[in-house]
Design brief:
This protein is mainly beta and 246 residues long. It has one helix and 19 strands. The strands form five sheets. Strands 7, 8, 9, 11, 12, 14, 17 and 19 form an eight-stranded antiparallel beta sheet that branches. Strand 5 and strand 6 (67-70) form a beta hairpin. The termini are far apart. This is EGF-like domain-containing protein.
């Protein structure tokens, strides 16, 4: 491996290095990475990593918080059109048992899920200009973390499910970052860091986040450049889409 990063003529007949056409340098072959000494096989979900090229990028696996993880995809929408993934359980938060007309705590057992630090709110009762109004679509109620802290959604009876999609945006911050991950028996199976905006909604979706039992949302930090009546780190969710038994 002494010819790593040398000019192409130094590794024409090498068993361990290949010529990178773009740079004209000796690099590691496909599906391998340079660890500073050798070319090693790229790693799979759950393995440790220091950079994205340590992980199997061809399988949509990237390095997140020093772990190779499958990354769910995100898209952005500026309209109030409801975006629904193919799923068996679409959660709109409009049919919570004993629901008040303003806000409240989402009870455990709703939609066969347990909700930790998760509340609902009637968007029409919130200040104009807040992200709640941005998130208002055909549904009246939204899910949010009322105290601005981390929250989790998990199976109420142990039945595993697939995560399909959800819509999200920030309540007060112009931009609010959060870490979202899916988990199975305490082990992270996929995840990434996303940024929620106040003035438009985005959508996270995943076609391969199956056989999980918990969704974890860790609030990180944000920025605010406009004057708002509040400055909390509330994250808004709408149209959560999952499929039990997958």
């Amino acid at each position: 491996f002494s010819s790593y990063n040398a000019s192409a003529d130094q590794c024409q007949n090498s068993r361990y290095l290949s010529v990178d056409i773009a740079s004209g340098r000796c690099k590691c072959p496909a599906r391998t990475f340079w660890n500073g000494t050798f070319c090693l096989n790229q790693r799979f979900t759950g393995d440790t990593c220091q950079a994205n090229d340590w992980c199997r990028n061809d399988l949509s696996i990237s390095c997140v918080s020093s772990t190779c993880l499958v990354i769910p995809t995100t898209t952005t929408t500026t309209s109030t059109t409801t975006l629904v993934a193919t799923c068996t359980t679409l959660i709109t938060f409009d049919d919570i048992p004993g629901q008040s007309s303003t806000s409240g705590i989402i009870p455990n057992g709703y939609k066969n899920l347990n909700w930790t630090n998760a509340d609902y709110i009637n968007a029409s009762t919130t200040p104009i200009g807040s992200g709640y109004r941005t998130a208002l679509g055909s549904q009246a109620f939204l899910m949010y973390n009322a105290n601005g802290f981390n929250f989790t959604i998990s199976s109420a009876n142990g039945t595993r499910f697939s995560f399909d999609s959800f819509l999200y945006n920030s309540a007060w911050y112009d931009f609010l970052s959060f870490d979202f991950s899916t988990r199975r028996a305490g082990q992270v199976t996929s995840g990434n860091i996303f940024t929620a905006a106040r003035t438009y909604r985005s959508r996270v979706y995943c076609n391969f986040c199956t056989n999980v039992d918990t969704l974890v949302f860790n609030i990180k930090n944000g920025s605010m450049t406009t004057n708002q009546t509040q400055n909390g780190t509330q994250l808004i969710l709408a149209n959560l889409c999952i499929s039990f038994g997958r």
